Amino acid sequence: MSNTTDDNTDGIEIDEREARAGFLDDLPPADQPAVLRITSQPAEAHRRSAIERAERWEDGEAVPRVVNFQNPSDLRGLLTDRRLELLRSIMTAAADSIRQLADRVGRDVKSVHDDLGVLAEYDIVHFEENGRAKRPFVPYERIEVSLEISTPQPSDDAATA
User: pLDDT digits over 70-86, tens only?
Assistant: First the structure.
């Protein structure tokens, strides 16, 4: 899974350092970093940050996993109040199943299942098979959300062209 929602990569040659930027994408849940950072940054700023994190990681430093959205409304669409409630509940106390989590938060199983599926698409929530049930869990100790609002830079325009 990519750490960005940017699909405008046609004609962009990615150098070796940038290719390493997906260094945390395929880690199993037990090996995920302690911190997940969900950001909204322009593509170029996110790319620079990912390269810097990859270099720090290669030097043995602990770095966060980052999921970036170029469009702040996409970030807001992901982190609805109901999904945040699910994340808080899961991180506070383990749930043995989606049904148990739905009962805990007072919602129907289908809507909780759907919301967990969306969160799983971004590797925020993971599942462990528990007999016939799926046990949702968050492999991170902390989730940070960061929204950057800044004056557009010329490099930002080139990244979206």
Answer: 888 999 999 999 999 99
